[in-house]
Design a protein that fits this description.
alpha+beta, Phosphorylase Kinase, domain 1, seven-stranded antiparallel beta sheet, 14 strands
């Protein structure tokens, strides 16, 4: 597969065309950002780790019946993905109160929800990715009610599968952000990435009662180096994939 012209560059990834019109080339960057990009720093090896982690998680999800746009990993920092028409939408699932949910609603961090909370945020940097509801999305032509009737159940299935995956490696899945899109034949698929950049992951092997972050909150809150945490997530996921006999793409 030949990498061609760059189509897009975001905060954490670059997207390139390939010689197959239905396949794109994704390059993971070493940069970490927070606060709408106001805080930024490069971490050696972060792109490699996020590429590995996303590949592992998407492969583990596929083994659980949830497909994604991933075709395969091609090297340390790159993967091939199916070309998608993406919804300009961040889909957030929350199992425990943390982050923006707490500051927005005055809830104490760590509150366990009776059931998962599904939220949508419009992908718009100028507006700081505002919180939106179903009606907002329909009137803004972001998606249709029919789209939402597919998106919401798939998001909840992904949450259930991720809870299972992370519980098996002694990690609490607090919340996560995903994106979805449609292929050229209209199939709705999970896309983008699932990494410690886009999840809150709390280590359950520490019995001190203190929250041990294995995610980007280490960077957001100046709590420590993210690389050892990301390495630990990758190591545990790789061990799980091997134990389950999952073929990693």
């Amino acid at each position: 597969m030949e990498k061609l012209e760059k189509l897009y560059e975001g905060k954490a990834k670059q997207l390139f065309a390939t010689d197959d019109p239905e396949v794109l080339w994704v390059e993971y960057k070493n940069s970490a950002t927070a606060g709408d990009g106001e805080k930024k720093e490069d971490f050696e090896g972060k792109g490699r780790l996020n590429n590995l982690i996303t590949t592992l998680i998407f492969s583990l999800l596929k083994a659980r019946g949830i497909d994604s746009h991933l075709v395969k990993r091609v090297d340390d920092t790159a993967q091939l993905v199916r070309k998608m028409t993406m919804f300009p939408l961040e889909i957030v699932l929350r199992n425990t109160a943390a982050g923006h949910f707490c500051s927005r609603l005055g809830v104490e961090e760590g509150l366990e929800f009776k059931e998962p909370v599904l939220e949508y945020f419009l992908k718009n940097d100028d507006l700081h990715d505002p919180f939106v509801n179903d009606d907002d999305l329909v009137v803004l032509d972001v998606c249709t009610r029919e789209d939402l009737a597919e998106i919401a159940p798939l998001a909840r299935r992904i949450n259930e599968a991720l809870i299972d995956i992370f519980s098996k490696i002694d990690v609490k899945l607090v919340d996560f952000k995903i994106e979805m899109g449609r292929t050229s034949d209209g199939t709705l698929l999970l896309a983008d990435e699932i990494t410690p950049d886009s999840c809150r992951l709390w280590d359950q092997r520490d019995k001190s009662g203190k929250v041990e972050h294995l995610d980007k909150d280490l960077f957001r809150r100046d709590l420590g180096d993210i690389i050892p945490a990301y390495e630990e997530i990758e190591r545990r996921l790789a061990a799980l994939a091997e134990a389950e006999g999952v073929c990693v793409e």
